[in-house]
Design a protein that fits this description.
It is a single chain. It is built from 7 helices and 3 strands. Helix 2 packs across helix 6 and helix 3 packs across helix 4. By secondary structure, it is mainly alpha-helical. The longest helix is centred in the middle third of the chain and has 24 residues. Strands 1-3-2 form a 3-stranded antiparallel sheet.
Amino acid sequence: MSIIETLLSPVRLRIIHAIRDGRPFTTTALCSRLPDVSKATVYRQVAILADAGLLQVEGEERVRGAVERTYRLHSARAVMDSDSIAAMTIDDHEQLFTAAVGALLAEFSAYLGRDGADPLSDSVSYRQFSIWLTDKEKATLIREITNTLRPLVTKSPTPGRRQHLLSTILFPTDERQSRT
């Protein structure tokens, strides 16, 4: 199964979001981070991610007669490179976008379902902006966003630091506009 095919699941995308901090985890611990997903589903999806090489087994320990594995995200494999994206079909893009939106909806529903969820004090935002850009302005925007986010995605969890999910979606909305 290719990386793209592996990522075509909202649950697998949510697992990757939950473990992106790079810390080792057990499937039991992951289940507590995704309480709205059944344990059987989490175990099945972790096995798929491990088989695809997105998760590395860090260790194994016997727990009540069963073997519990500790995993770590293989960060380099969890990123789609330019060649993989270029090889995607229109259907692949539609399926991956649908999975990403499904994961985003599930994460937001899980957030709203938590005790004490407070969108106002948590500065929850889901705004959309329609912007007019030349290809050069779009490239600059993407570079500036990437440069701003790069140092933030490497931060480790610490007391007082909460994990947030930031999604960016950028695509042209009107094919009739001039590309000049």
